[in-house]
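Hello forum,

I keep getting stuck at the same step: I have a sequence, I want structure tokens, and every attempt I make locally crashes halfway through. Rather than fight my setup again tonight, could one of you with a working pipeline run this one for me? It's a single chain of 226 residues.
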Amino acid sequence: MSTDWIKADEPLSCLTVTGSERNEAVVISGFSEGLHCIGIGTDAAVFTYDQTPGYAFKVYSDLALEKKETERRVYERLEGIPFFPQYYGVGKHYLVMSYEPGITLHDCLLEGVPVPEQVIHDVEEARELVRNRGLNPRDIHLKNVILQNGRGKVLDVSEYALEGDDKRWEHLLWAYRVFYPSVEGKKIPGWVLESIKNGYVKLDQANLSLDDFAQRISQLFSRFLK
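Reply #2:
Ran it on my machine without issues. Output:
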């Protein structure tokens, strides 16, 4: 296994990723020439480094170091499955994975990039292979699936060691079948996606069924498509 990614260790040590107990996005402080942030979450931020092309570095906050170790073990168990980044190694506060170019499904909707059926099939196959490794493929959503050369790839495996089915992928699959054909190739405004996301998060609290929620989304899309 290549270890040339170690060149990024010192630059990464110049950064501090600070987490929040309120499940808010991490805050990044510090700077090092050649590092580029390509993603921010609630536990970590992801960087690339100019001198180590082909690698991505997921840097965790101090609050999430236990999750770093959990995710490392998950990646080791997923070795060889082509629908996920390749795991290379671990640093004090970070994991090293292959850099995966592509556009997230969320950005596909924003930019009007068609999402082919093959992406759906790939994620379905990935989930089945994950289950065969004794893990639980959950927390799969628009921002951690990318379109890559017409195929699908899943980026975040941090919850695969948890129990329970959050239904996020099942509901996305349902939305792809029910709503997506009417908006495929159209640019969907960010406020529309944010409204859907907020409504989905509050679905249980509002005592709405998925069918009731679907009616609300249909009304939202009907106004957008006029």
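The chain has two domains: 4-98, 103-225. If your local run keeps crashing, start a new thread with the error log.
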